[in-house]
Design a protein that fits this description.
Layout lengths: L1 H10 L12 E3 L5 E3 H6 L7 E3 L6 E3 L7 H10 L11 E3 L4 E3 L1 H5 L8 E3 H10 L1 H98 L6 H17 L19 H13 L17 E4 L4 E4 L18 E3 L8 E7 L6 E7 L16 E7 L2 E4 L5 E2 L8 E7 L4 E6 L7 E7 L6 E6 L12 E2 L11
Antiparallel strand pairs: 1-2, 3-4, 5-6, 5-7, 8-9, 9-20, 10-19, 11-16, 12-13, 12-19, 13-14, 14-15, 16-17, 17-18
């Protein structure tokens, strides 16, 4: 039986595409072709086309569907396993099958329904079709919305990346300018030092050349003395002897080239200088009088604090320290990067750093990170970081000015020796795990009967340098 279906299938192929007919259309000459094949045929200006089989000119505008041929094709579709017509529908697998598939094949025992019954049922279930249409429309809108959002996201990422690339170019441009300035400074220092030494050596060389010329002249004069008379001999010989006695021979001493810096320290020196330049601009901080201990005195627009001799009568507001000799800055931080400096001068005892805004101010301030206090300080000529346990800071020189850098989001508080206007020297860094606002803290400590009366100063930030 299978050979019959194979022969029938060969007769149901389109003469143009050689595939089984798909939506067969019948021309006026009686020959049929797939709808897409008819649409691909060339028509003249009158809408006529030539049949590829019989070469007759026929109307190609709207040939009718060959219904009989379409039904034969539908009925001739066979099962690929048993080569029988697909006349049944498996309800469990939701697929069309042949009779053998349902009786002895893979669909044996499944719920089987004739194709005609299933077709009639599906045609009647208009509500189900409408539901599917609504579902597909809803899914289509969701996909379109997702595509729209992805396109917007792509555009936003492109814009953000363009902005970030501009920022990167700007930042590296500034770094290159800084490096070029530093390079020019080192080169100028080398050239100036070399020029001074070369000038000195040139002067010595000129002087020696003059002495050499005089010796040559004296030698020539001595050679001619044998022919001179007594009187000329005595005069010339005497003058040569007197000149030689007056001229003391200068011994040449080698000069060493010392440009004023060690070439091995160039990178470290430049890094320190760049560190100051790349940090945020110093914060224009002032001290908050509402937080100052009653013995503290503020001066110069609340930028200088010292420990007075008398306890002043001030309101005991919640912000004020009443035990520790502390004062806070008037500005707190809860995000970002911030840098400020404090002048300690010759003060023999002090503490500087950061404190949580929620720290208690009515009892002795416990100075440790666990209590929300991050400070370094000086006492008895020893610099310490107040951790648990405390860490002694081995500084090579006394601190006169301290730079403090807070990276709130990065979780770090770093202290620098900022006594030089050109560079920063690292002192100590705390790991910072905090939520909420934190404030710069100045602990003046007790005046110690006048020995520790020196003030702590918040210096005014320098004016920004003009861009070159």
């Amino acid at each position: 039986m299978w050979w019959y279906f194979c022969l029938l299938e060969d007769q149901l192929r389109c003469p143009v595409c050689l595939d089984v007919f798909s939506e067969p259309l019948m021309l006026q000459c009686g020959h049929s072709y797939c709808r897409c094949c008819v649409r691909s045929m060339t028509m003249d200006l009158l809408g006529q086309l030539q049949c590829p089989v019989c070469r007759c000119s026929v109307d190609g505008d709207s040939p009718p569907l060959n219904v009989s041929l379409a039904r034969i094709i539908e009925a001739s579709e066979s099962c690929p396993t048993h080569h029988n017509p697909l006349s049944l529908y498996c309800e469990d697998e939701r697929t069309v099958i042949c009779g053998l598939c349902g009786s002895i094949g893979a669909h044996r025992g499944h719920k089987i329904t004739p194709v005609s019954s299933v077709y009639s049922r599906m045609k009647v279930q208009k509500t189900s079709i409408k539901t599917l249409k609504h579902y597909f429309q809803h899914q289509k809108r969701k996909l379109e919305d997702q595509i729209c959002k992805m396109a917007y996201n792509k555009s936003r990422i492109t814009n953000e990346s363009d902005v970030l690339k501009w920022v990167v170019r700007k930042e590296f441009g500034e770094l290159r300018r800084y490096l070029e300035v530093e390079e020019a400074g080192f080169m100028q220092q080398v050239e100036t030092s070399a020029a001074v030494l070369i000038s000195s050596l040139q002067k010595q060389t000129d002087q020696l050349n003059q002495n050499l010329n005089r010796l040559q002249e004296a030698q020539n004069t001595l050679q001619g003395l044998s022919n001179e008379g007594h009187l000329d001999f005595i005069m010339k010989y005497g003058s040569i002897s007197q000149e030689l006695q007056q001229k003391e021979e200068k011994i040449f001493s080698s000069l060493n080239f010392k440009p004023g810096f060690n070439h091995n320290d160039i990178k470290l020196t430049v890094w320190r200088r760049l560190h100051r330049k790349v940090l945020p601009a110093p914060e224009p901080l002032k001290l908050d009088p509402q937080t100052a201990h009653p013995m503290l005195e503020l001066h110069r627009g609340d930028t200088v604090v010292s420990c007075g001799a008398l306890l002043r009568r001030l309101p005991d507001n919640p912000e004020r320290f009443t035990y520790s000799y502390c004062v806070l800055a008037n500005k707190g931080f809860s995000s970002g990067k911030h840098y400020w400096e404090v002048e300690v001068g010759d003060k023999p005892k002090w503490r500087l750093g950061l404190v949580k805004g929620t720290a208690s101010r009515k009892v002795k301030l416990t100075k440790s990170p666990d209590s929300g206090v991050w400070v370094i300080g000086l006492k008895d000529s020893v610099y310490e970081a107040f951790t648990s346990p405390r860490v002694v800071l081995p500084l090579s020189a006394p601190l006169r000015r301290v730079g403090i850098f807070l990276d709130y989001n990065g979780g770090a508080l770093t202290f620098y020796n900022s006594g030089s206007p050109d560079d920063l020297i690292f002192i100590y860094s705390f790991r910072l795990e905090v939520q909420g606002k934190v404030y710069p803290l100045l602990d003046v400590c007790w005046h110690d009967r006048g020995d520790n009366k020196h003030p702590l100063v918040l210096p005014l930030p320098p004016l920004p340098e003009p861009m070159q």
